[in-house]
Amino acid sequence: MNNPLNKTDNDAHITLKKRTSSLFEQACQKRPLQICPQFIYKNKIKPVYFKANDQVLNPSDDIQNKFTQTILKHKNQLLSCSSKPLSTKNVTCAVLFSGGPASGGHNVIAGIHKVFGKENTLYGILNGPKGLIEGTLIKISEEKIASVLNCGGFDLLGSDRTKIKTSQQIEAVKHTVKQFNLDGIIIIGGDDQTQMLLC
Predict the structure, then answer these.
(1) Residue 22: which of 145, 157, 108, 150 has the closest Cα?
(2) Which of 80, 103, 166, 191 reaches 20 to 30 Å from 9, CA-CA?
(3) Below-70 pLDDT ranges, the chain
């Protein structure tokens, strides 16, 4: 079955342009990825889960007005990290950038890739939400991560500001999810972009 929004079949292989790094970027890429200690268990990086604790935030009226559904669902409770990691095997997820580039985007993907390890699969969605609609995904590899580690921007995957809201777009996204057997989609972007993406 072809993606509903594609007029022609996508190429079987998507080739990324080779990225050239400045001397400064090359020096940055040699630095280790900084990992929050909550994700380190017995000297290995592992996924963890979070659960609500008894502490409740009191956000400003402006925040409450913008995040009414989230606040209604979660009651402004803070989350605590589990003391033991999750066991994840054979999970397949895809990650995308949405909106304008930010300095930490590449390292977020690097962290997700490390947490996933070799027992799970991580795809990158090219050109943001538009790529999710069109089904343009690539496998994230160590080589791809090394080329952007500690370097700002969203240029590994690209980004855009597409709003997914028509029934045709939603069907195209469903097709992509089925085609790549995705268990989840991770969106890296600001609150404005993620709200537009999910409207």
Answers:
(1) 150
(2) 166
(3) 1-19, 191-199
The domain made up of 88-198 has a fold known as: Rossmann fold (3.40.50)
List the beta strands (DSSP E) in the chain. Answer: 40-41, 44-45, 50-56, 77-81, 92-98, 121-125, 137-139, 184-189
What residues have CB less than 8 Å from 137, skipping those under 6 apart? Answer: 14, 94, 123, 124, 125, 126, 131, 176, 180
Tokens for 177, please give them.
């999810």
* Beta bridge mates, 79: 52
Encode pLDDT of 6-58 as tens digits: 433 344 445 555 667 777 777 777 887 777 788 777 777 778 888 888 899 88
| pLDDT score, position 8 | 37
Percent of the chain as helix, strand, coil, to the nearest 5 = 35, 20, 45
Find the angle CA(135)-CA(137)-CA(139) to the nearest 5 degrees: 155
49: helix, strand or coil: coil
Residue 98 and residue 124 in contact, taking contact as beta carbons nearer than 8 Å: no
